[in-house]
Amino acid sequence: MINTCRLLIYITFLSSLMSYAQTKVAIYGQVNGAQFTRVSLVSYQGYIIDSTIISGGKFWLNEELPGGDRYTLFFRDVTGKQVDSASVYLDNGLVKVTVNNQGQQINFQGSNFANFLNSYYQESASIQKNQSAIIVLNNWVKGHTNSAISLFAIDAYLLHTGRDADWYKVAKLYHLITHQAKENILALRLELEIEQNNTLELGKPFPVFSLPDLKGMKTTNTILKGSYVLIDFWASWCGPCLKELPNVKRCYEKYKSKGFEIYGVSLDKERDAWIEAISKEGLTWPQV
Q1: pTM
Q2: What is the mean pLDDT of each run of 10 residues along the chain (288 residues)?
Q3: How far is it, in rounded angstroms, from Cα 162 to Cα 176?
């Protein structure tokens, strides 16, 4: 089910991507003092869009790309080894990339995104001392709700924090950004990513879902409404899950009389293995 959801999200993204008009983007690069011989432009999905040789410290890339989004420039040395990379946000027109000090300083100029980037880096640097990444993001987005660069700020935050991102706060900030600022591919991608990862707000009802039980009948988690419910994701092939079950059973027996319930959600693909594990482990709470 998880893979199916991801596939549907990816198909939605691709179909939406095709609806955006292609815009011409030219990247002019000036490499000062760095031993780079080739540069590649790579999409968010990891596909190489274009690649060219760096000659005399200069390079050109010309492409037609949809909307505005984050891309990556990968720099390689004479052996073909990747020695540096830099994220670049492209919308349309000419972007000038300047690489200094063996790749330690990479600057962008030209496009709206590039100009916004300079402003973002300057402002965020001044408020970043002794503050968490989410506070920096909050300050920037609330002060630039009509700016597409707020999308970059969110994207940069997600790149930095990964799985530790505060998705609920990210979602709230994303929805503060105006529709005009979201007319690009980056906004679409972020919206899908937030939708896929957003956690529940504390105090709000858990979403209702329906899955087949041991008899193959569809059942919903609302059958335990009014109880304190632990939703336990497990599988018959999961060693750590089985090892933890005795502790789960002890908690269930101790607190069941006080309104504590467990709702077992199996990730098994083999129905027989799932049913056998339930019987063998003596699991008496609802299983789907």
Answers
A1: 0.52
A2: 42 43 74 82 82 89 75 85 77 72 63 64 62 81 87 83 80 91 83 76 74 87 86 88 91 94 90 93 93
A3: 22
